[in-house]
Amino acid sequence: xxxxxxxxxxxxxxxxxxxxxxxxxxxxxxxxxxxxxxxxxxxxxxxxxxxxxxxxxxxxxxxxxxxxxxxxxxxxxxxxxxxxxxxxxxxxxxxxxxxxxxxxxxxxxxxxxxxxxxxxxxxxxxxxxxxxxxxxxxxxxxxxxxxxxxxxxxxxxxxxxxxxxxxxxxxxxxxxxxxxxxxxxxxxxxxxxxxxxxxxxxxxxxxxxxxxxxxxxxxxxxxxxxxxxxxxxxxxxxxxxxxxxxxxxxxxxxxxxxxxxxxxxxxxxxxxxxxxxxxxxxxxxxxxxxxxxxxxxxxxxxxxxxxxxxxxxxxxxxxxxxxxxxxxxxxxxxxxxxxxxxxxxxxxxxxxxxxxxxxxxxxxxxxxxxxxxxxxxxxxxxxxxxxxxxxxxxxxxxxxxxxxx
Length: 405
Description:
The chain is α+β, with helices and mostly antiparallel strands. It is about 30% helix and about 25% strand. It is built from eight helices and 20 strands. The protein has helices at about 15-40, 180-195, 220-240, 240-245, 250-280, 285-295, 295-310, 325-335; strands at about 55, 60-65, 65-70, 75-80, 85-95, 100-105, 115-120, 130-135, 135, 140, 145, 155-165, 170-180, 320-325, 340-345, 360-365, 370-375, 380, 390-395, 400-405. The longest helix has about 35 residues, at about 250-280. The mean pLDDT is about 90.
């Protein structure tokens, strides 16, 4: 018997179509392993059966402190009470053990505002318990109460507390009591990935890919799947080359392309929805009506009134100073006022120095606290500083135009 007959047979080459099938197989296997691994770490409820999530919308909420207005999108909190506090409550009746997580659906929480969850139960009906809530990107993060010693018995009431000045309205859409079962968690993640991401001030630079705040971003999951799939393929090509053939870099490339196509498909779907939303908002309207319909429509309407009070723009024309607590409002107000000689601080919430102002200058104030005007004496001051002579040309809700004397 020759030595050649004892040598192991070389693995047969795999056709490109078969390489694609191998890539699809390892991709699906890695995806299943990653999802199951994530659910095993995140789930707290039963894998089969169990309770379903409880959801309450804004119409079921009661405002105990502060000022709010009900609308089609939810409950818009306009202002806190005299102690800078907002309290929104809800009557409930559910077992604490079945619902370990409470998630308030809130958007637009300004910086500097603190949030807390209040509740009481039949275990100690005379006591009110509290838990500080984290705020991420203007939204309130879900509160995991499973290990809280006071989260026991039947929960009879929930409340959301906001403390601090509200530089802008806060939208409260409702609250959800979560069971944290694998099915519920997976459904939440899918809804986050497929959530409509409307254009905003940073869309020209990046697209997050779904909801603003996500427990598990889709790009991170797909990166883990690609890495695990590559390791699985490398192991299979080493130990069972007869099934998958020798290691080929092209298979890893196919896996990467599959992940990229999933991300691109989600982006294209978001783009289709954005095109439909833009058509509904702007189609058939004049340039001015389009500005009114835009995200800064309220600011544009105010600047429109400001321009009516200003003399014609010229190189030697009046100087116009723009102040606002939020940088976005300062930038947009200055943009809408061009070609006037506009001055504003693009970095910080500052006021122009009093000695730098001269008669004939204009001061545009938009949602900026600390500005006071005495109409009887025609005196304007801000942040407790020295007053300056000025005329109030007109005032709107949280906004005004002054001319320096």
